[in-house]
Write a structure and sequence with these properties.
α4 crosses α8. By secondary structure, the protein is α+β, with helices and mostly antiparallel strands. A six-stranded antiparallel beta sheet has the order 1-2-3-4-5-6, with no helix packed on it. The protein has two domains: 142 residues, no CATH class; 119 residues, no CATH class. The chain contains eight helices and six strands. The longest helix has 13 residues.
Length: 309
């Protein structure tokens, strides 16, 4: 296989995620599930986190958490029934995060670091990113971690039989947050299910970059990040709704003629929809990690836009 160059362990078995059987979780490792899924061309995913003993997550800003040094977060990708890769992001004492992907061997007994990435890995159409590509999205968050946040964890356990799954409520119970929310973070009755699902989708798939702390926001002015304070409002009063509905785009593209972020009743003139729908263009969104338009996301966007007439 040649020489592998990575600042993290060269084998997944050395990261602490699993025990010797590469199946049982390691000591202190907890599964978690974001309530709003990130579309990755129909890949199935599992996620885990490990926090250093006697540490807490700094939640003084409920919208953007800061993790203790030593935190490890893993994400596993299975495509077409084949477990392909597991990614690791680990925070260093300097505050820097290191990241690398591990490619599972054919016999599934081990996964090896592939810092240079791999196209169409394990006989599937899934692409393993190189270590640098991960920062396209991770760099848009103040503390780089994605998916483990107040909004994403404010739900009941996905697996009711697993007491180790971490949710927001369980983190509060375990005293792992420096500033726990004063009340449960729940969407108010002013959020119909359709709007909650769509805005949650945008939060997970677009807001990780398009948020007040990311450079994508400074380029486009687009904010798709649901804030903790938004939950008590109505959907129409939320920061995301106000940022997109009947709002002119800031960043003009020659190839894209749409002039509104969301133009009520018009799919053709809604830039957010056109960027989402069309793949392979310089202006397509997201810019990486997806080659196939998500039919569920497309249907939600179409229903929302056309329903605004």
């Amino acid at each position: 296989m040649g020489t592998t160059k990575t600042r993290l362990p060269c084998r997944l078995s050395e990261t602490g995620l699993f025990g010797a059987d590469m199946n049982t979780l390691g000591e202190g490792v907890h599964p978690f599930s974001p309530q709003f899924a990130l579309w990755s061309d129909a890949a199935e995913k599992r996620r885990w986190i490990w926090l250093p003993p006697d540490s807490q997550i700094d939640t003084s800003d409920m919208n953007f958490w800061t993790f203790p040094a030593g935190t490890k977060i893993w994400k596993e990708f299975t495509r077409d029934g084949t477990r392909v890769e597991t990614r690791l992001i680990e925070k260093q004492s300097s505050g820097t995060w290191y990241t690398v992907a591990y490619l599972w061997r054919d016999d599934q007994t081990e996964a090896d670091a592939v810092p240079d990435g791999l196209m169409n890995a394990s006989g599937t159409e899934h692409d393993v990113p190189n270590a640098d590509a991960c920062w396209t999205c991770h760099s848009q968050q103040p503390d780089k971690a994605l998916g483990f946040s107040a909004i994403q964890l404010a739900h009941s356990p996905m697996d009711a039989a697993d007491p180790n799954e971490w949710t927001l409520a369980r983190l509060v119970e375990a005293n792992l947050l420096t500033a726990p929310p004063e009340a449960a973070l729940e969407f108010s009755d002013g959020w119909p299910e359709a709007e909650r699902a769509l805005f949650g989708y945008l939060h997970a798939n677009c807001g990780t970059c398009h948020n007040p702390e990311g450079s994508a926001n400074s380029l486009t002015g687009l904010d798709l990040w649901i804030k903790a304070d938004d939950l008590a409002k109505t959907a129409e009063e939320s920061s995301v709704y106000l940022a997109i509905v009947d709002v002119d785009i800031m960043k003009l593209d020659v190839e894209l003629e749409a002039t509104k972020r969301i133009d009520p009743g018009s799919l053709e003139n809604s830039a957010l929809y056109q960027r989402f729908l069309n793949k392979g263009q310089s202006w397509s969104m997201p810019p990486l990690a997806s080659e196939v338009t998500d039919p569920t996301g497309q249907a939600m966007l179409e229903a929302f836009i056309l329903g605004l007439e």
